[in-house]
Amino acid sequence: MNPCVIAGNCQREIQEADSGRTFRYPVSFRFAVVLDRRSFPPSDFTVTCAGDPALGFVSNVPVERAPLYARAFEGVRAGTCTLHDGSFNVTIIIFELPY
Prior knowledge:
Helix content is about 5%, strand content about 45%. By secondary structure, it is mainly beta.
């Protein structure tokens, strides 16, 4: 099992400083990416998944103070996705928790 799930401290907010990192989250976990729109325009933000999309968009996201913006996601099935905007990129691995 993912240690962050056991400890209850999975990183819920990903920022520019996290670029290049890989994050592992269980299915149904929600997290957000918060970026500065001056460096990372929202229109350039992309999500690419291997196979069926492992992430779903969450629409009820608190509004960030300008110039920041947020994109929120929930793990919907096991898989791997890359989130990208200009020089920012992170890999998200969604996994099933054992029952």
